[in-house]
Structure formats: structure tokens, C-alpha cells
Design goal:
Order of helices and strands: HHHEHEEEEHEEEHHEEEEEEH
Number of strands: 14
Number of helices: 8
Shape: globular
Largest sheet: 6 strands, antiparallel
Distance between the termini: 33 Å
Helix content: 25-40%
Oligomer: single chain
């Protein structure tokens, strides 16, 4: 995500009225009149949404869209809105009320300002069977259930719009760090990131895991929830074995541990995780590639042999590259 683009005037949104309406509705214990007013304000707002562009899109047109420059007739092309998923597998259209609500992550590589009415329309017509819209998913979150935009208020259940539960936010926050922030820093900074993680260890991880919570929501993590063990295996291999928090309750796809492998001579880095499997199934050994692709590789190896499995996978990858 290009932070320079986010700083352009077109992204300087003023949604103070929307933020106030959300706070009023939360404080009202689901008062439907306040909900009606909240949705009215949201429909007339402008928000920032993460999108993907077609591979063959004209770069000049893409840059116009990212910079908030109006397009000429015939320049338009379809965008691919990205989604976020909760612990129950429900998909939502993410949207941000301001650039201050956005944490840097490769999960959302491009963002553009659009009318909220367009987000609502896309959600209602989406073939992805979206459950609704999730505002500010990285910093607290507020869900508009899809039915809230379709149902008469006089007949609408108070459950149609609700705040993200503590468990749902925990999953979103951890995914932001484990699948976004850490691999982004690793592949961008490489050896510098490894050395900082070696030096600062649990304290550094605690800071990273606290970022999605912002200044208003207390982070549940302490330094005791993390451990970092550095192993200098040989001149070409340094491995970091990282234990991650488990006390907050493990949900599917949360990482129990992570393994970073670094070659000090070439500055190559690798990132692997042991993720909690589906209910009744084994945990899974996964990785994230330098292209930020998340891959499920194999059933997690027995406890104590995870690093050996990771090193074997890297060795096999090297051998395959050498044969090509």
C-alpha cells in the first residue's frame, strides 16, 4: 500500500458525523431510530475501500483512480473489491472512515475513496454472498449487516447491525500482524528486521501485536505471551523460532508459532507458521512468499520437529531451483 497516495487531498475524508453516529448508536443499546439515522449518514458519506485491479488495466488510469482524479469517458474498468472473513467464515466488504484508521498491510495493496452508497450497492449485488460491510476492520470495527440496507426499520431486528465481537476483532487483529505486518517487514527489511527481532525479542513483538488496537483499545498481550529463540545453524542459516500468544483463545488460521530463516550472506529470508486447523483437523504448516502469497503446505509436524521440517522444505526448494 502506497502511503504517499493516502496522504493526497482526495483521501482526506471528514467522517466526524459518521463516527459520532456510530458512537451514539453503540451507547443507545441498539435504538432503531439512531440506527436509521446512522445508516442515512453512512449512505451519504465517502469512505476508503481496498481494491484489486485487473492485470491488464492501464497503469495511467490506475494512477488516476488512486489519486482521486476523475476519469474520462471510456477509461472506466471493473474493480475487484477485497473482503475480510470472520471466525465463522462470513465475508464482509471492508471500508475505512479515514486514512488514520488504516494500518499498513500488504493484504490491502491498493485503496481508493468512493461513495459509501457504491459500497452498499456492491455489497447487495455481490456474487460473493457478502454478509455486510465492516467499517474500520483494523481498529475496532463496526458491522452493517446486509439486511440492514434491505429491511423496513419498523420490522428490523436489533441484531441486524452490531459491533464486532471481541473474538472477531482478536482474529482480525492477529491476522493483520501475522499475515500482514510481520511478513511485510521481513521481506522489506530482511536482515535488519531479523537483527531487530533478535535484539528486542518479545518486547518488539508485543509492540507489533498492539498496533491494530490503536490508542483507545487496550492490547491484551504482554511480553510473557511471546518468546524468540535465535539459532545460528551455519554460516548461511540463521533461524528464529517464535512462540505466539495462546491465552486469548485460538481460532482457526491463527498462528501458534512462526519460523523465520535468514541467510546472512545473501540476505534471503523465509517465513513459515504453524496455524490452527479446522475443528477436528490437525494444525497446518503454512508459509507466506515474498510475493505475499499465503500457502498451506502440509500437516504440522510433531512438536519439536517444526524447524527441521521448515529447513527441509527450504532445502527442497533450493534443489528444485537448481535443477531448472
Amino acid at each position: 500500500m502506497d502511503r504517499k497516495i493516502l496522504l493526497r487531498p482526495a483521501y482526506n475524508l471528514d467522517n466526524a458525523g459518521l463516527e459520532t453516529a456510530i458512537a451514539d448508536y453503540n451507547a443507545s443499546k441498539n435504538d432503531l431510530k439512531k440506527l436509521e439515522e446512522l445508516i442515512r449518514i453512512f449512505r451519504n458519506a465517502q469512505v476508503i475501500v481496498p481494491v484489486a485491479f485487473p492485470k491488464k488495466a492501464d497503469v495511467r488510469v490506475v494512477m488516476k483512480m488512486l489519486n482521486g482524479i476523475p476519469l474520462k469517458k471510456g477509461e472506466e474498468f471493473p474493480l475487484f473489491p477485497l473482503t475480510v472473513t470472520d471466525t465463522n467464515g462470513n465475508k464482509y466488504a471492508p471500508a475505512f472512515t479515514s486514512r488514520e484508521k488504516i494500518q499498513e498491510t500488504k493484504d490491502f495493496p491498493y485503496m481508493i475513496p468512493v461513495p459509501a452508497s457504491q459500497v452498499i450497492e456492491n455489497t447487495l449485488k455481490s456474487k460473493a454472498d457478502l454478509a455486510g460491510i465492516l467499517l474500520n476492520p483494523q481498529t475496532g470495527g463496526f458491522i452493517f449487516r446486509k439486511k440492514a440496507f434491505e429491511t423496513d426499520f419498523s420490522k428490523m431486528s436489533r441484531r441486524e447491525v452490531k459491533k464486532v465481537s471481541k473474538q472477531e476483532f482478536t482474529v482480525l487483529a492477529r491476522n493483520t500482524v501475522e499475515k500482514g505486518q510481520i511478513p511485510h517487514l521481513l521481506f522489506e527489511r530482511k536482515g535488519d528486521f531479523v537483527r531487530e527481532l533478535e535484539e528486542r525479542g518479545a518486547e518488539y513483538l508485543k509492540e507489533l501485536y498492539a498496533k491494530p488496537y490503536g490508542d483507545k483499545i487496550p492490547s491484551p498481550y504482554t511480553v510473557d505471551d511471546f518468546s524468540v529463540m535465535s539459532l545460528n545453524i551455519n554460516e548461511e542459516t540463521t533461524a528464529l523460532c517464535i512462540e505466539l500468544p495462546a491465552k486469548t483463545g485460538m481460532a482457526v488460521h491463527m498462528a501458534r508459532s512462526a519460523y523465520i530463516v535468514w541467510n546472512p550472506q545473501t540476505d534471503e529470508v523465509y517465513y513459515y507458521m504453524i496455524e490452527k486447523g479446522q475443528r477436528g483437523e490437525s494444525d497446518v504448516l503454512c508459509n507466506i512468499t515474498p510475493e505475499k502469497k499465503h500457502q498451506e503446505l502440509m500437516t504440522a509436524p510433531p512438536v519439536g520437529s517444526e524447524l527441521t521440517a521448515v529447513l527441509d522444505l527450504i532445502r527442497e526448494e533450493k534443489e528444485e531451483e537448481a535443477e531448472e
